[in-house]
């Protein structure tokens, strides 16, 4: 309510805009570390409260051993998920890569100019 309006008056931005602006100034490794720390905190909480988690998931048909193995292997699942995200991102980038005909024409022109310049200097091509 009033605190967000005071913040907007003070900074010229709302709370979500301020958070976004702060995130744009963080380096990638800082963002990665923040997500990593959040993951480790969630994983530690899941390890400590494994019994409560098992009881909460029991009505869904999850067996105690399945929950236990999943919680213990969460870091491996996170690495696998990160790898899949990376491969998917690269695949999407390659699939949607567009040709640049103007750039190709520019390179062809520069190659021709270079050939002419080299021939003037006596280099045989």
Question: Could you explain the architecture of this structure?
Answer:
The protein has 125 residues and is an all-alpha fold. 81% of the residues lie in helices and 0% in strands. It has seven helices and no strands. Helix 4 (50-57) packs across helix 5 (64-72). The chain is elongated and about 80 Å long.
Helix content: over 70%
Low-confidence stretches: none
* Rg estimate, integer Å: 28 Å
> What is the H/E order?
HHHHHHH
* Extended strand count: 0
Task: Tell me the major beta sheet.
Answer: none
The first-to-last residue Cα distance is 74 Å
Average pLDDT taken over every residue: 83
Characterize the overall form: elongated
In a nutshell, what does this entry contain?
This protein is mainly α.
What's the structural blueprint in terms of helices and strands?
Elements: H1 2-11, H2 15-25, H3 28-48, H4 50-57, H5 64-72, H6 74-95, H7 101-120
Search tags:
mainly alpha, 81% helix, 7 helices, 125 residues
């Amino acid at each position: 309510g009033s605190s967000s309006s005071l913040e907007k008056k003070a900074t010229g931005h709302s709370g979500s805009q301020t958070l976004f602006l702060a995130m744009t100034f963080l380096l990638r490794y800082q963002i990665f570390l923040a997500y990593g720390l959040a993951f480790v905190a969630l994983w530690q909480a899941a390890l400590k409260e494994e019994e409560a988690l098992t009881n909460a998931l029991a009505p869904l048909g999850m067996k105690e051993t399945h929950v236990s193995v999943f919680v213990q292997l969460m870091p491996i699942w996170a690495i696998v998920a990160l790898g899949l995200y990376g491969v998917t991102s690269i695949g999407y980038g390659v699939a949607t890569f567009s040709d640049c005909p103007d750039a190709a024409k520019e390179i062809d022109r520069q190659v021709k100019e270079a050939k002419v310049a080299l021939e003037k200097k006596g280099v045989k091509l």
